[in-house]
Design a protein that fits this description.
Length: 129
Amino acid sequence: MMKPVVFREASKPGLCVFSKPCRLIEACHINEVIPDLKLVETLVEEQGLYAAGFIGYEAAPAFDSALAVHPPGDFPLLWFGLYEEMQRIEEPGAGSLPSLPCMDWRPSVDPATYRRRIDDIKSCLAQGE
């Protein structure tokens, strides 16, 4: 049984819950991304379905071949469930969440090392890596 897909819509209160997809669309190869995305769009427009899913970062070259990304792993580049209906539910309040055990979080590096590593990341990004 597939677990529900849950989204928060920024402009509306509550959560959008999608369960029991009538169709799943998944692209695992770069040449499948655009056709599958067009299929999702067509089914939503023509059949009035809801689409809930994602397009992975690694799918970027499907839209612009100049974009370089890491090779995709086992995770799909695109995944959408198509649903006939959506349920809107009230977002659970803080008191309704289960309590979590107390965690003793401690940094694994000192502040100077952390700042240096962040600066290294920013430098790599500025150089296009």
